[in-house]
């Protein structure tokens, strides 16, 4: 039986990540990534605009996993339930076999100021898109912005825990733990 072989895009991402990890992001060139992945630089540029995009590719899909469930929810769905739907959907974006890649990716991003700024920009863009989707559903301000901010905060805290050394729980479990903590903060058990 044949083993699954990653496509060129995935091979380039895996190769780049390993080179970033071993020799540093700044010291890794597109030429080195292409050569190590056994493709031409031209092939690299068919898949990515630059080496930074290896770490940030998939932004449209990333945003869609949060926004689509909000847009597809029944009309009478309360805002907090929309937040939960978005986070449940996002949990599927982080399968267990991607945890090691995500850990390495985050380490690389955290050690480079420009990449860290790009990551924050990605989360800010997600907040804007979520708030727009909530307003489009008739969620008034400031609730739409607070719900969008809450969604991204819960996601960010959950992701940080999911990639922490020694963490083995599924992403969805961590998300619901954070949502429970938020619920208890807003309405403490009596």
Question: Can you lay out the helices and strands and say which pair or pack?
Answer:
Blueprint (H helix, E strand, L loop, with lengths): L7 H16 L6 H7 L4 H7 L4 H5 L2 H14 L6 H13 L7 H12 L2 H24 L6 H20 L8 H16 L4
Helix pairs in contact: 1-2, 1-7, 5-6, 5-8, 6-9, 6-10, 8-9, 9-10
Explained architecture:
Helix 1 crosses helix 2 (30-36) and helix 5 (59-72) crosses helix 6 (79-91). This protein has two domains: 8-53, Homeodomain-like (Arc Repressor Mutant, subunit A); 58-186, Tetracycline Repressor, domain 2, CATH 1.10.357. The chain is an all-alpha fold and 190 residues long. Helices cover 71% and strands 0% of the residues.
For the structure shown, list the relevant keywords.
2 domains, 190 residues, mainly alpha, Arc Repressor Mutant, subunit A, Tetracycline Repressor, domain 2, disordered N terminus, 10 helices, single chain
Compact description:
The chain has 190 residues and is an all-alpha fold. The chain has helices spanning 8-23, 30-36, 41-47, 52-56, 59-72, 79-91, 99-110, 113-136, 143-162, 171-186.
* Portion in helices: over 70%
Ranges where pLDDT stays below 50 over 5 or more residues in a row are 1-5
Strand content: under 5%
Largest sheet: none
| Tally of separate domains | 2
